[in-house]
Amino acid sequence: APWRAMCDIYANPPRVGGGGSLAMAMEQGLAVATFAGGDGGDKVGGYAVNSSHAYFALLHSWAVDVAARQLAGDELKARFHARLDFSADAAAAGLMQACELAMESFRQRRGAPSA
After folding, report:
1. Residue 92: which residues within 8 A CB-CB, separation 6 or more?
2. Long-range contacts made by residues 69-73, C-beta under 8 angstroms, separation at least 24?
3. What is the DSSP letter of 28?
4. In this structure, are strands 31-33 and 9-11 parallel, antiparallel, or unpaired?
5. What gap in Å lies between CA 13 and CA 112, rounded to an integer?
6. Through-space distance between the first and last CA atoms of the chain, rounded to whole angstroms
7. Mean pLDDT by 10 residues, the chain (115 residues)
8. What DSSP assignment string belongs to 42-53?
9. Nearest CA to 74 among 28, 19, 18, 5?
10. What pLDDT score does 114 carry?
11. Cα–Cα distance between 98 and 48 in angstroms, integer?
């Protein structure tokens, strides 16, 4: 957290994992660059990119355009609180719904009756 507090941009490279640290960066209001199709991309929504070219173009644009970087950080912070912060009612309800779906899927695979 102290390192992220000194940052303006969180660059999440293509990798397995990284969603937890990316979410913490969103919580702090950082602009987050990440790729679509993974844990990070799912968290940032429309800010996720599909290619290395788009990834580096986004990083460059945020490096030179402070207002755009701050807007992205503000929007991602709001997205964090709406979707990922489990102290918020909507995010907690989404987690409970995901857990219920997972349990139902498990029951169906095992052939057990629904509760």
Report:
1. 86
2. 69/8, 69/9, 69/31, 70/31, 72/31, 72/32, 72/47, 73/8, 73/29, 73/30, 73/31
3. T
4. parallel
5. 41
6. 42
7. 82 84 93 91 93 97 97 96 79 81 90 67
8. HHHGGG-BSSHH
9. 28
10. 61
11. 22
CA distance 37 to 15: 11
Residue type, 18: G
H/E stretch holding 15: none
- For position 62, what pLDDT does the model report? 98
- Tokens of residue 14, six digits: 């293509």
DSSP for residue 47: G
Report pTM. 0.76
Phi, psi of 55 (to 5 degrees): -60, -50
Q: Tokens 């992220």 belong to which residue?
A: 4
The tokens of 12 are what?
A: 């999440």
